[in-house]
Amino acid sequence: MQQCPYSPPRVKVPRHRNQCFRETLSWVQSLGSLKVVYAVKVHRKGLELLREKGFEVVVYSKGRVPPFEWLCKEIRDAQGLVITPIHRVNSELLRCSDKLRIVVIHGSGYENVDLDTCEERGVCVANEPDAIAESVAEHALALALAVLRNVARGDRYVRSGAWREGPAPRSLIGTSLKGKTVGIVGAGRVGSAAARLFKALGSRVVYWSRRKPELEHGVGVEYVGLEKLFEESDIVVVAVAHTPETHHMISRSLLFRAKRGAVLVNVSRGAVIDTNALVDALREGVIAGAGLDVFEEEPLPPTSPLASMENVVLTPHIAGYTWEAMEGTSVAVAQTLIRYLVQGVPPLNPLTPRSCGVRGERV
Question: Could you give the residue numbers annotated as active site?
């Protein structure tokens, strides 16, 4: 008999995934009142749902990131923790609690969560990417159109008063999206939604993904190699998750293989792209323009070369920032917590399958 890596303290059970999960669930439910700590203020509907089920809910609402001391104290007797992609969950934080059983990411990104340590300590980690996918895809389309049609430059031109001097200059002539080739890098939820949007507006859509999904039949798009995607695409949309394998995957060599005059849109994570290489490609005209919602350093420093480029449209990581996405994600997170801690049902999107009690490979 060995202790399960995610069993309650000092309880010896057979090292079998389902039995370990049932033992942990039984122990959690025996604790009585369940407590969930939110490291961020979220839409009220999810909080109301948990309180209706008898959960004690504690929310940090004084800023973007709670002090470590506050979070450590609050999770000491909590079974659930809700974070966003900017919050760190590491071994130091996990040592604060023997009772913590699940961490749910309010969104999709998990690059700041130590999945190995969570799994070792028996903490299930899950994310909720579904509710924001359409919003992020819409933002990718908006950024592409803003660059192609000089929306931001036109706005600045009007506000400057220059329009009073005569008709708009030729430098504001835009490019139509219809008939262009759009390459989607990453065909997960966001990439698939973006493919449907661009396809509906008359674009030819090609895609590359680490795991090839069946988009050809469902959406009517074509799978190509990554280099070919850059060589053929008029617009490249980056929607791949940031992992050690995808860090700087949009490299200098890849950027300089791009079809001359291409537009690059990034709604994934800034570190997926080699920023210095992108700046050089923009300056040399290999990449004609870029629409960027994410950056390697956030907030973007005012001294960044990107901030002074006329052919770049910047937004402050708001692709998933819609009322609909926030409400939907809040409710989905609450439902995951209720299913896992009360009903014993594993999350729909487990990032650590073993400690979540499901079969499957780690992300």
Answer: 269, 298, 317
